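Sorry to interrupt, but I need a hand with the structure work. Go ahead and set the record down below:
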Amino acid sequence: MRNAGLEIIVLRNGLDFSAVYCRMVPVSESKYQPRLYDSFLEHHLRNYRQMAFLTGPRQVGKTTACRRLGDVYLNWDNEDHRELILQGPGAVASQAGLDRISDRPVTVVFDELHKYRRWKLFLKGLFDTYEERIRILVTGSSRLDVYRRGGDSLMGRYFLFRMHPLSAGELVQIERSSSPVHAPRPLPDRDWEALLEHGGYPEPYVRRERTFSRRWRELRRSQLLRDEIRDLTRIQEIDQLAILGRLLEKRSGGQLVYSTLAREVRVSENTVRSWVSVLCSLYYGFLLRPWFRSVAKALRKEPKWFLRDWSGIEDPGRRAETFCACHLLKAVEVWSDLGLGSFELRYIRDKQQREVDFLVVRDGEPWFLVEARHGEGGLSPSLSWFQRQISCPHAFQVAMHGAYVDADCFSYRQPIVVPARTLFSQLV
């Protein structure tokens, strides 16, 4: 994915703006892993005037996807590009050829633009002035997702897409679908094993080299827990936050007890809460809250913590649960981003300590339960208990190493054991 040659961008109308922008083009297109997001963004650019904001973890493939779709690529981290952006919307429009006749809108990609303090005002001016002649893709780190919440200057002018690592569902179907689930499709054994071992981030998944994957994970963790924290926050206790990150890595899938973490890291409980929030905003991991009919009750219970990358987790049980959590989170966020409904991912637990790992909620109502299991075993009694209690249509116990079965999991109404390869091939 990183091997690339330099190619000067020449716009379709013949103008050469090589002095202003260029792009890196993969040497071998066969090494490019096609993404589901390609079809999402292509459909958006064809059918909607709104800007597309693409957020997600570092190195998940956002820039690669957008470059393949854009006519013009501008990166705030490039000094030449930054100088052009600082000249204002008119300068960018002129360089993009918006003042010339064209048979279709020009697609302009802005990368890392959120680092510009006035980025929202810049985009508002560019969009409002050239709305009919331009399509805008904006991508960057998770900070873009944080910054977009402040103020409403861009209200109604953009749609958000959240990019996730590769998943079983994306590997078997990269076409845009109009329904949340589709028919199961088999994933080749070599691809399934690579997904389990190397994770869903494109570069280690495509390379499939154990030593490379280990080095890649370590470098990414170090850059996120130290470099990005230092650059993007005001946190001074970098070493202690890195220790917190290490502790959380070993506890993926467990309930987050802030007071315990505070004692181990030797900071206040409020500080730990703040740091966990920062780690979530930088896509190091995510929190899963319990589901209740009453939202107030849900807020009084401790959340569960999951890493965004299951490939480095040594404990097989935690690894299996994190794998399921990442797949389900991707599904609910993609479905919501595509306007297929309002979806949430929760877990469910009662006072008698009965628990089911995951509950997918659709438009405010329980849709399906998922219990993750690394090994073989009988059905968890909690599945049938909670299915009756909350009137949930489907209840699945996922067998991580079960052989693929060509059957629709969602055709069953009673609790049932399903192979992970089957269930997740039906999602995204």
Confidence is low (pLDDT under 50) at residues 1-30. Residues 169-426 form one domain. The chain has two domains: 4-163, 169-426. The first strand starts at residue 4 and ends at 8.
